[in-house]
Amino acid sequence: MKTKDIEVDNLSLETIGQWPLLLKNSLFIGLGIMLLFLGFVLVLKDRWTELSTTRSQRQEAQHHYATSFHQAKNLEGYQHQVQEVQAMLANCSQQLPNKNEEAELLESISEQAHLSGLQFKAIKPLPEETKEFYIEHPFEILLMGTFHQLGEFVDRVSNIPRIVTLHEFSIQKDKSTANLEILLQAKAYWSPQTNIPKDNR
């Protein structure tokens, strides 16, 4: 039977065996395409999602590898930086005296005032404050002298080997002399690990 002799109304599944070869092939090809599409939707869709997830994981792994490689490549530099920080920390720790050295530190501050030409009139200890890594002990100091001598004193104190900071300056002219009466607060810092007196026996 030729294709041109077939009427569309006469086509049915019961007479599929009598259909022309071209028509039957077209039907099978169409069914095949439909099955492939359904297979993609039902089966390959999950595989595609899994592939996309795997690609994302691979990209994350590549990024992590690149970061780790960069850190490993610069490990020697990081270790050098750590050593520098540790050396700085050790140096700062050495500048924190223990409580046994308090008298020596106050004597050093008094000496800097004397070398600057200031009169060391009085010193008054104030309450200590315990911080996370150190103990802060302020002292109220009364001095007599000039602005120039005060500037020299501040410079000398900044160069002593222990950490001492100066705060809350109050300056007024002394009525009986031409000098200035200088009231300030000096803060010393103690290391809490070294507060216990050492046994020298």
**Biggest β-sheet, characterized?**
5 strands, antiparallel
Total DSSP E strands: 5
**Structural shape:** rod-shaped
Whole-number count of domains: 2
Specify the oligomeric state: single chain
Helix content range? 40-55%
How far is it from the N-terminal to the C-terminal residue, by CA? Answer: 124 Å
Enter the CATH topology name of the largest domain.
Alpha-Beta Plaits
Percentage of residues in strands: 15-25%
Question: Could you please describe the fold and organization of this structure?
Answer:
The chain is an alpha+beta fold. It has two domains: 1-73; 97-194, Ribosomal protein S6/Translation elongation factor EF1B (Alpha-Beta Plaits), CATH 3.30.70. It is built from four helices and five strands, in the order H-H-H-E-E-E-H-E-E. Strands 1, 2, 3, 4 and 5 form a five-stranded antiparallel beta sheet that branches. The chain is rod-shaped. The relative contact order is 0.10.
